[in-house]
Amino acid sequence: MKVSGPIPVTSTSHLFSSMQYSRKVIEIKEFDFVEEEYFILGQSNIYDWNEIEQKVNVFEENLDYTTRIIVRRPADNNIFSGIGYVDIMNASNGYDIEDLWRRSYLHIMENNHLYIGVTTKPINVLSLKNFDYQRYQSLNWSNGKVVNSPAVANPVTMSIDGTEEGLVWDILHQLGIYVKEDSSAIGINKKVQYLYLTGQSQSGMYLNTYVNYMHPYYEISNKSNPYDGYLSLASGGLTRSLRQEPDNTIPMAMRAPHNAEISHPYIQFNTENDYYLFKMFGGEVKPIENSNTPTNKKRYYDMTGAAHTDAASPLVPLNSEIIKTKCPPRILDNEYEYRLNDLPFDYYINGILNKLHHWVVTGEAPEIIEPLMKNQAGEFLRDEFGHTLGGVRSPFIDVPKAKYQASYDGKASTNGTMIFFTEDEIKQLYGSKENYYVKFEEYIEKQVQQGLITQNDAKRACAWAMNIWK
Question: Where are the domains of the chain?
Answer without folding.
Answer: 2-260+308-342, 395-467
